[in-house]
Design brief:
The complex is a heterodimer.
Chain A lengths: L2 E3 H15 L3 E5 L3 H4 L2 H6 L4 E3 L4 H13 L3 E5 L2 H7 L1 H9 L6 E4 L18 H6 L5 E3 L4 H13 L4 E4 L4 E3 L15 E4 L4 E5 L3 H14 L4 E5 L2 E3 L3 H11 L2 E8 L4 H12 L4 E6 L9 H7 L4 H14 L2 H6 L1
Helix pairs in contact in A: 1-8, 4-6, 9-13, 10-11
Chain B lengths: L2 H25 L5 H4 L2 H11 L14 E4 L5 H11 L39 H14 L6 E6 L6 H12 L5 E7 L2 E2 L2 E2 H4 L5 H7 L3 E6 L3 H13 L5 E6 L22 H13 L1
Parallel strand pairs in B: 1-2, 2-3, 3-7, 6-7
Antiparallel strand pairs in B: 4-5
Helix pairs in contact in B: 1-3, 1-4, 1-10, 3-4, 3-9, 5-6
Chain lengths: ~325, ~270
Amino acid sequence: MEKASVREAYGRALLELGRRNENIVVLDADLSGSTKTKMFAKEFPNRFFNMGVAEQDMIGTAAGLAASGKIPFASTFAIFATGRAWEQIRQSVAYAGLNVKIVASHGGITVGDDGGSHQAIEDIALMRILPHMAVIVPADAIEMEQVIYTIAEYQGPVYVRGSRVNFPLIYNNGDYHFQLGKGSIIREGEDITIIATGLMVHHTLEAAKELENCGISARVINMSTIKPIDKELIIESAKITGAIVTAEEHLIIGGLGSAVCEVLSESYPVPVKRIGIEDRFGISGKPEALLAYFHLMPEDIIEAAKRLLDCKPYRLRAIA
Amino acid sequence: MEEADIERLKAIAKDIRKDILIMLNKATSGHTGGSLSVVEILVALFFSKMRHDPSNVHYRERDRFVLSKGHAAPALYAVLSRCGYFDRKELFELRKLGSHLQGHPDSKFTPGVEVPTGSLGQGLSMANGIALALRLDKIPSRVYVLLGDGEVQEGQVWEAAMTAAHYKIDNLCAILDNNGLQIDGWVKDVMNIEPLGKKWEAFGWEVLEIDGHDFNQILDALDKAEKIKGRPTIIIAHTIKGKGVSFFENQVKYHGIAPNDIELEKALKELDSN
């Protein structure tokens, strides 16, 4: 399985955007080597602002730049971007409706050894709750690049969650086109739908292959845009398959699973199981070990899918 | 500055004070003391120093103003309306449902407001961003940002102070409304911010200290600030909270309450008699 770095994809896209559009400006909070904004900084030192370890000021400065017609990309680790500077994002960016792009690296527990203090497991919830804010979690490096080009054209605040670890490539066949607000069906199926985001899209595809061996046909959706969420696709999937599993490297509270449940409970209730981190913080460990420890592996998705099928209403099971 | 010009500004300041008190009274809530303390500063900026055009609100070469101490919104609104950004009648819809004048400045609703403020400590960062963008675009406009004294207790202000000095943002001038009071009492008792001038100097700023109710001193300082290159300037303006109405002056109680009908009548009479 070929893997690629989503943060390097961000760095490359940002550099290319910088060459195309002189209104692109970039801010970082002393992590430009990790977030890969350094690539832009090297070529465009006048349009790059290292703000030091000062995330709140970084967001406010980005807001001011946006208020004057620039397209600022502000980057740091996900926990500091969304946690430390949350109220600055609320007041100076979202409330103002300003065109600031917050692209964070180091989302989720795969931050690894640095431990729970550095693992953002709340960031999607924190950003999703803000009016006007779009929230995107790319599933691989190819999608990340497309996301960056797309949001540069889109007018309004956006949060993009990247990762420290390399993601297996999902879209290396070359025919994918990211659309803001649209989920993408990457595998068709009739018995159950698994909606995933970020690294969990890959784990979901692995799970779906295994489920097929057990005679269960799973529809797999990459829900890279978590807000605005693709309601039509969720409802359509509920109608077709009658049961939905969600999978995310985030708390089960407030993230993708919650967003999907909000849609379903009001429009087309079906049994749901949310795969994610329970109500607790992360810990130190290697990324792979942590994914297993927090039950975010393909086998966890398989087990959830099988159990959920038992909950499906009789009528739908009969049809299936 | 000619004496006649100063007299003109003083007359405007008196009218602005009256408008502030009437609008607060009609709104039945809002920040009286901190609105009255910034009147001369705002009048000097909008009626003398700043290049701006109410008939072409977003023209590129305008000077920008950020009211970081957003709770002084009534003063800003009264000034903007007097400049012609919107009808004076709107002032008396302050804080009401459907009004263009929100409780704290909001660029989505009010022409002449550059960025929303109200959550303290965020205006200087935004002003820095605006100033950096102007510099990148080679637009010779200046950015003015008005801070409160209690507001500098926010850590973000000092992050932004570092940024302005580090990036040598000299097209920006901060003004600090040093009225000495905050909601819970005297600033020196709640959380001492002194030595204020030395702090800003240590952060790499040029510091000017003036009487914030004296138009000559305000305008001189704004002119001086424009000539200082290679570093940002802050004007520490010593002011009186509630300035202009004897029974509001230096009264912590009037930080966040509006004058009632009796107080309004008395205050307007006092302003007219001076």
